Amino acid sequence: MTLIYKIAPTSLWREAEKAGVFTGAPVDVQDGFIHFSTAEQTRETAAKHFRGQSDLLLIAVEAEALGDKLKWEPSRGGQLFPHLYEPMKLDAVRSVAVIPMHADGSHDFTGLLP
């Protein structure tokens, strides 16, 4: 099983839980796909896009459960990032955890990522 990760504000994720499907954050909707990161990419994603933001969740998703609408495409520095080209059914989610934030605005992934 390959886990991929989505960082999302708690309020956005709670809306998805009520709806039974995650349609993405505003940037996902704008880009036409849901952005994910691998375990190795998640810390850099948080530093680049979420620094200073509190009340975030780390959603671990089983990549294989997303089917053929999940594409691995080059992004930052040519790294392959997982992008989902449809709303995500929540049955692919394996865990949801609060991401603690340090006083300097960085995030603490201790115990959250392999």
> How far is it from the N-terminal to the C-terminal residue, by CA?
13 Å
- Characterize the main sheet: 3 strands, antiparallel
* Rg for CA atoms: 13 Å
What fold name goes in the CATH topology slot?
Answer: ADP-ribosylation fold
Range of strand content: 25-35%
SSE order, one letter for each helix or strand = EHEHEHEEEEE
pLDDT < 50 runs, ≥5 residues: none
Q: State the name of the first-level CATH class.
A: Alpha Beta
Number of helices in the DSSP assignment: 3
Describe the overall structure.
With 114 residues, the chain is α+β, with helices and mostly antiparallel strands. It has a single domain (3-99), classed as ADP-ribosylation fold, CATH 3.20.170.20. It is 24% helix and 32% strand. It contains 3 helices and 8 strands. It has helices spanning 10-19, 26-31, 39-49; strands at 3-9, 21-22, 34-35, 56-62, 70-74, 80-84, 88-89, 93-99. The strands form 3 sheets. The chain has a 3-stranded antiparallel β-sheet. It has a 3-stranded antiparallel β-sheet with strand order 3-6-5. A two-stranded antiparallel ribbon has the order 2-7. Strand 5 and strand 6 (80-84) form a beta hairpin. The protein is globular and about 40 Å long.
